[in-house]
Records
---
Amino acid sequence: MASKQKEENWTEEIICPICHEFFTDPISLDCGHNFCRSCITKCWEKKAINSCPECRESFPHRDLRINKLLAKLAEKARQAKQVPKVKENQLMCDDHREELKWVCQTENKLICETCKDSAEHGQHREMPIEDATEMYKKRVKSSLDSLSGDQSVEQESEKTLKQKIFDLKEQANSLEKHIKSEFRELHQILTAKEQRLLSDLREEEKRIVEPMEKNLREIQERLKSIEEKRSSLQTLMEQNDLLAFLKASFGRKRRISDETLQISTEATTLSAGKFKGPLQYVIWREMINSIDPGLSSLTLDPNTANPRLILSEDQTMVRLGDNEQEIPYTNERFDYWYSALGSEGFISGRRYWEVKVKNKTEWEIGVVRESAGRKGKIDSCPVNGYWTVWLRAGKIYFATSTRSNALNGLSLNPQKIGIFLDYEGGQVSFYNADNMSHIHTFTHTFTEKIFPYFCPGMNTNGENSAPLVICGIKKC
């Protein structure tokens, strides 16, 4: 194995770097590199300046010195019939069988010395393969650095998105538990009412059936007695001895007579009205008081109402009047916006109420925190403690005080708006109470008392004169 490697090493030294064959008439240049005479001559034919194909050193004169030692070694290798072995990983030109030592930047391809000197590449930009390698390494490193930066950005995006997906799934699981809990409570309420009604049915059945069964038993006893008497009389009738028949007849303590059995025909039925009426509606009406949250019965606080607002006597309706009223000034009263608050604030629990907005072209309703400003022109947005939805021009709905947050998805024109407040859950949601479709939801961590908010809006040309009406169970 060692002798074979030694043989390969010395034969590599007698191979021409241009033709990659054993040297033929080898010559040496002043730089020390060796070539076949015909190879270097052909290489220099089209060059204005002679240079070494290996190190690119230029020579003003063609001083070609014969290298007799290489000639002898090459001849020895040919006589031994050895085959020239190209160095490993050495790239060769398919057209000229020469080593690829140049990079054509114009065509982005590797070329040999002959290719470089050809007319085809005459106007092209070439670069030695070593220099090109360094240049492309820099480009690759730059691309690698860029990709590393892109990778970091994408990894961060991946991490963020995974967290969002995880949070969304957690939220979905939480909402699923909430939905199941709400329906479980409804099922419990319905089951309890079902069991109560069935119990009432059994009680009423028992109350009616027991006397009837007692009466039935009495009838059956009398029927038995009648049957016994009939049997006795039938036996008597079959007596052929006249004297015995008369004697037996005279011996009876009771006079045989027609006995009429009186049976009561009094109507005895279950109450169809109680057990077979509009049962579902009746149960629904009963459930209203059990539902949490049920429909809250709110009233307006006159001490907070703008002087131009007119409240109904029961303080459940508010509309805009033509003139300001002479009413006491209070710190709680709105003095610029035509607004009023509910009389009750909330610091816990869940509440739901509905406001009738029928025939109105402007309104604003929702909730505000107790410390929210009420004087002057206030921007009614969450930052200022206002969580509201409002209508303008009879068709454009907003969730904040800027037009960029218009609720474009609200296709129907609600006649009633439902507002849901979950204090601990930090949620204020709005619904089209006509079909309970969702309109918008605010989320916030509440830390102070929250009040219902009502603003009937401007009454331009009498087009918005209808009041806002707080709906109760028996109202709206």
Note: The longest helix spans residues 129-237.
---
Amino acid sequence: MITGYVPGGFDMLHIGHLNILREAAKRCDRLIAGVATDESLYAQKNRYPVISFDERIQIVGALRMVDLAVPDTSQDKRLAWQANHFDVIFKGSDWQGTAKGERLEAEMAEVGAEVVYMPYTLSTSSTMLREAITAGLTA
């Protein structure tokens, strides 16, 4: 049985989120979605999400392709692995070949998990949605 893990902010759930979750679910028997806490998103991006953690984890957990939604509290995915042993972690292809992708690969190698990069959806991102909302409010 292969357990997969998809970490993410899942702020303003959009097609890019659905794409990675859908594709990841096809490649494992059990899919865990690690939903970043508000604090961990702030630490990473220096801003809080639009949608609260409590709402984001409920939304992601309700998706039929997700078997379990759990809090993701750190950029160090070895901590996520310790809490929820998984065989493969799925990330967007925008991480591939970057310093953060290489760090993730090294960390996952330490615990015996594989990193699989999924095609990144260029048409929509939470950052794009946030910018569109902000532009609309200042127009």
Note: The CA atoms of residues 94 and 120 lie 6 Å apart.
---
Amino acid sequence: MTVINTKNAPAAIGPYVQGVNMGNMVITSGQLPVDPLTGMMSAAIEVQTFQSLENVRAIVEAAGFTVANIMKTTVFVKDLNDFSAVNVVYEAFFTKYGAPFPARSCIEVARLPKDAKIEIEAIAVV
């Protein structure tokens, strides 16, 4: 197992790593919608969704994988009323990278770190 650490995704805010590379599999930690360059987070669910996905992409790519290698995501949302807006961005993201849609779970949660509206984790396999 190799720890993944990239400046292209936000640093972990607790005792965990951005992701781990198991050789043929990458498992990311949940990615908040924090811009790694500014440390800021938009209030808009669409922007938050895109940023969380971009953070996942950065970790997967740091391990030498691509978006097309993502086989499973788990999406945590603060409000399931945002489900449709999240889906629009999610679909556009995977389409942009020419990747098939992965298996996915979407779960409403009471609260997320930094009061984010979304957090996304992924498993990628080669």
Note: The longest strand covers residues 70-77.
---
Amino acid sequence: IQALPRGQESAARAMGFSLPQIYWNVLLPQAYRIIIPPLTSEFLNVFKNSSVASLIGLRELLAQTKQPAEFSANLFGAFTLATLIYFTLNMSLMLLMRLVEKKVSVPGLISVGGK
């Protein structure tokens, strides 16, 4: 909200909006469009770094991959599949968040996709 131009709040006050109306109708709709790109980055970082923290990621995936790999003696294929699953999850999240960013972007305010 502090990233928004100061005049937005002043203009809403001049129009007679109450403080809740200012936030709900003027400031928050603009602020969430500014928040989406950094939020996307943080969301992807949490997902990717969770494998380091062993919450949902790589360590469990590799441990679950090890058992069938030892059974089938196809170690390379099993770990390749595990890598593809992890990569697919990350790319799906990234593409989903990119669609959200494009949907809420305001032309000229935020550049989406490096344009």
Note: Helices lie at 6-14, 19-53, 58-72, 75-104.
